[in-house]
Amino acid sequence: MRWFARRLCFYVFAIWVALTVNFLLPRLMPGSPISGLLQHLSPAQLAANPGIVQTYEALLGGGHHSIWQDYVTYLHRISHFNFGISTSNYPTPVSEVVGRTLPYSIFLVGVAFILSFLIGTGVGMVAAWRRGGFTDNVVVPAFMTVSAFPAFVLALVALYFLGLKAGWFPIQHAYDSNIVPGWNWTFVSSAFRHAQLPIIAIVAAYTGGWVLNMRTVMINTIGEDYVGMAKAKGLKDRRVMTRYAGRNAILPPLNGFAAQFAGAVGGLVFIEIVFSYPGVGYTLQSAVLGNDYPLAQAILVVLSVCVIVANLIMDVLNFVLDPRLRTS
Amino acid sequence: MAQLDPTALDLPLAAPKRGIRVGRIPIPGWLALLLRNSKSRTGLLIVVFMVVIAVIAPLISVAHPNDFNLLATRQAPSWHHLFGTTDQGSDVFSQVVVGARRSLLLGALAGAFATLVAAALGITAAYVGGIVDEVVNLLTNVFLTIPAIPLLVVASGYLRARGMWTMIAVIALVLWAFEARILRAQALTLKNRDFILAAKTSGEPTWRIVFGELMPNMISRIAAAFVLVFYISLLVDSGLEFLGLGDMSATSWGVTIYWAQVNSTVLQGEWWPFLFPSLALGLTVLGLVLVLAGIDEVSNPQLRTEHRRGRLLRLLFGRAAA
After folding, report:
1. A262 contacts in B (CB within 8 Å)?
2. Whole-prediction pTM value?
3. Which residues of chain B have pLDDT under 50?
4. Which of A1, A132, B123, B312 has minimal CB crowding within 10 Å?
């Protein structure tokens, strides 16, 4: 339980660092971003939203307050998720824009990442178990080669061959343009069809890492005495592979989950742009290119929190899977 | 974009003593070791090939990469334009070979800068221990938790000018944590060796032990960590340029891919302005990954593939993959 408390403290600290980095970034950069931001609002729009300039100044600096006052205001605004108005989506508040786009991204990266974890560890396990076999000699190098390409290249290749040439999948947007989002079958099935190609691209990009990690650890695990003992007992080959070697080998790759997931969230930005998928990544790029800094800040905060929450879930899983953590 | 992040970077402490000679050319020990492994041999070949292309780029490019010719736009690859032309009529082949210079240089410099920061911080933390180690370790873990790409996107969004050195600094400052974790762990296993204790008892100051004793003895591990961050920053930099957040006036692989995406050439069936720079990028990264995998195998004999190699695979990927 102490281990768990330590992890929780770490995550709270990590969120605080992420918020502070977010606060300091616009202030450390040369030039104040606030003038670029305010250009996008007309005087009438500014007059219609009293207090908006103060909110922006707390977020981005450039006001007349000291940096400490700004910091306190900033933390206060963030805790209420008040990032002001998104200039590129006037008059929608930033929080609403994020709330609208986030579910798409979570769905995409969640499904894709779980899939690539399952496929990657499975392939890595079998490759290590049957060294020099088909999986080890063909499937593993194939995944390695594919994963060497950046996510956006894979996404464009998938778009060109599977979407455009073969016409198997829709290539753009999250749902058909004539459908109103809602919890009904037409929307859900449409959204599902549109998510397939992006998911394929993410799986292609991120499975290679899991395969390589799992194979490396599994090879070392197979040399352990308890695996030899299980074999000597005459247990079925498959049972020794999954329950004895595999279950123990999966723990170290799970610990590398933090870096992998943060990486996949980064890759998501590119994949959403290639497919014009209206998630947070797509929104982030257009916000940054359009000087909509409050929106960009909010998305960075939300993505950091998402990665941390995913890590927390993984820690719970680790706790369940690894008896050593429970007894210590 | 750490898509491939080998967990084990455990290297033998010292490089092999003796080098070999091929004819009259002496080959240092570390290179001989890498050349003996089929993976790192292939990887080195690819990387050297790319570097040579970058060096001789002005000689082999047929036109200035940004020359445009509105009479020859959107041409498919032909003998005249080996990689085709863009929608402005620029020669894609020239863009790819000249772009190799900037892409490789930026990746290498950002990698080197990140390695410097990571080595100094990670090794010092491991050696000094105590509160310093706790703080550095905490910082490393936090930086690994904050998603790097969104952080870089937002950071470069605030920048007014995105010159080469600015991008190098920004990328290195975000990526150092990847290496610091690895190097700190490895320095921890070294710090209680006799030669370190000897240096300590003879009254060497901390900075001399870190930079004069620990670092030279970890040079092979630092080099491996550099290769890792080299290809990550190559990917990250091209990615930022792909998003339109790099130095868009420069010629590099990422910029060529960006214009291909902006003009949605792929959607119109023009695959060449996008495919060739991507292939160059992917090939370079694959080369660096293979070098890293080779280093891994040299140091960890258990990972070496047995000599029962599939014939199909040798056909497909050459000896490197088998």
Report:
1. 144-148
2. 0.83
3. 1-16, 306-322
4. A1
Residues A36-84: tens digit of each pLDDT? 777 777 777 777 777 777 777 777 777 777 888 888 888 888 888 888 7
CA distance A248 to A252: 8
Give B-chain residues touching A312 at CB under 8 angstroms.
none
In percent, the amount of chain A with pLDDT more than 90 equals 5
**Residue A17 neighbours by CB distance under 10 Å:** 17
ipTM, two decimals, is 0.85
Distance from CA of B64 to the nearest CA of A (A): 25
3-class DSSP string for chain A? CHHHHHHHHHHHHHHHHHHHHHHHHHHHCCCCHHHHHHCCCCHHHHHHCCCHHHHHHHHHCCCCCCHHHHHHHHHHHHHCCCCCECHHHCCCEHHHHHHHHHHHHHHHHHHHHHHHHHHHHHHHHHHHHCCCCHHHHHHHHHHHHHHCCCHHHHHHHHHHHHHHHCCCCCCCCCCCCCCCCCCCHHHHHHHHHHHHHHHHHHHHHHHHHHHHHHHHHHHHHHCCHHHHHHHHCCCCHHHHHHHHHHHHHCHHHHHCHHHHHHHHHHHHHHHHHHCCCCCHHHHHHHHHHCCCHHHHHHHHHHHHHHHHHHHHHHHHHHHHHCHHHHHC
Stronger pLDDT, A234 or A55, i.e. the higher one: A234
Collapsing DSSP states into helix, strand and coil, what is residue B26? strand
pLDDT at A317: 83
CB contact under 8 A, A132 and B308: yes
CB contact under 8 A, B1 and A156: no
Question: What is the average pLDDT across A245-260?
Answer: 81
Residues of chain B with Cβ-Cβ distance to A156 below 8 Å are 261, 266, 274, 278
Distance from CA of A184 to the nearest CA of B (A): 31
* Residue B21 phi, psi dihedral angles, 5° rounding: -125, 135
